[in-house]
């Protein structure tokens, strides 16, 4: 695996939050190197900074110190449009609580990122192809018969599969997942991990954070976040 090119690198990432008069140092020099095609799990206790770290890797938040680079491009040096494209197209996010839009049906939730990345005029040109891709993703995720349902009409496992479809819509180079099974019973959670395993088998690079040892063990490599750093 390590012979594959490096896709994502975090070096000495620091992040603290102000809590009233005090500062909480959450990340204190966290490092991570991910190679193309890897499935990496970051395990850590609740409050250890996993979500903070994942948000920084995905360009949703900035480190106070340290560098995150994607294919040797420093996120901190990207222009606003470039960083937006990174968040919307290069990376796909899956969250613990799905974050689907209840006003939209399943199919619309899945193709939404394609609308966002094109803007209205561009969207008109690609919408047929985008809808076809979204339908294909629903098929791959065994959700065909749910395309017109609203998220609130689905089970937790189905909602998370919709969220995975949305994350994959723009063919991300990197899938980032934050406790993707944290709200599911273990059988349903296993189904979600099977989907990740399948995607990784097809070459998808994945970074998943979790507090659950058994979930983490499904990844190809497990690293531990403790005391603000990645343990060696
Ligand atoms: N926006 C924020 N403002 C203040 N404190 C925060 C913020 N986000 C996270 N924290 C604190 O940072 C620590 C790590 O949070 P988080 O990254 O969510 O941990 P984890 O995902 O491992 O449970 C926690 O103590 C949390 O309270
Ligand atoms: Mg978290």
Secondary-structure map:
Elements: E1 6-19, E2 22-35, E3 39-43, H1 50-57, E4 65-70, E5 73-74, H2 80-90, E6 91-94, H3 106-140, H4 156-168, E7 174-178, H5 186-201, E8 205-210, H6 213-216, E9 221-226, E10 229-230
Helix pairs in contact: 3-4, 4-5
The chain binds adenosine-5'-diphosphate (ADP) and magnesium ion.
Magnesium ion is lined by residues 50-51, 178-179.
**Which strand order spans the largest sheet, edge to edge or round the barrel?**
6-7-8-3-9-10
Count the DSSP helices.
Answer: 6
Bound molecules: adenosine-5'-diphosphate, magnesium ion
CATH fold annotation: Rossmann fold
| SSE class | alpha/beta
Biggest sheet, in brief?
6 strands, mixed
CATH level-four homologous superfamily name: P-loop containing nucleotide triphosphate hydrolases
The coarse silhouette is globular
Question: What fraction, in percent, of the residue positions are helical?
Answer: 25-40%
Order of helices and strands: EEEHEEHEHHEHEHEE
Give the strand tally.
10
Rg of Cα set: 18 Å
Strand content: 25-35%
The first-level CATH class name: Alpha Beta
- Poorly predicted segments: none
- The total tally of domains equals 1
Mean pLDDT: 95
- The rounded distance between the terminal residues' Cα atoms is 18 Å
Q: Tell me what the CATH architecture is.
A: 3-Layer(aba) Sandwich
């Amino acid at each position: 695996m390590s012979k594959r090119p490096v896709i994502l690198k975090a070096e000495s990432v620091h992040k603290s939050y102000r809590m009233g008069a005090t500062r909480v140092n959450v990340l204190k020099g966290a490092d991570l190197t991910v190679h193309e095609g890897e499935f990496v799990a970051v395990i850590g206790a609740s409050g250890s900074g996993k979500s903070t770290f994942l948000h920084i890797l995905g360009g949703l938040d900035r480190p106070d110190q340290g560098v995150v680079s994607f294919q040797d491009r420093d996120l901190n040096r990207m222009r606003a449009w470039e960083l937006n494209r990174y968040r919307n197209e290069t990376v796909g996010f899956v969250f613990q609580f799905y974050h689907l839009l209840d006003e939209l049906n399943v199919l619309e939730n899945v193709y939404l990122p394609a609308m966002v990345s094109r803007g209205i005029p561009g969207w008109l040109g690609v919408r047929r192809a985008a809808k076809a891709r979204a339908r294909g993703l629903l098929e791959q995720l065994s959700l065909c018969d749910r395309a017109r349902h609203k998220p609130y009409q689905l089970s937790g496992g189905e909602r998370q599969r919709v969220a995975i479809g949305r994350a994959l819509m723009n063919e991300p180079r990197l899938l980032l997942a934050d406790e993707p099974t944290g709200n599911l019973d273990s059988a349903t959670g296993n189904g979600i991990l099977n989907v990740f395993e399948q995607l990784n088998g097809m070459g998808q690079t994945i970074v998943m954070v979790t507090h659950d040892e058994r979930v983490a063990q499904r990844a190809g490599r497990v690293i531990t976040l403790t005391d603000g750093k990645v343990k060696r």
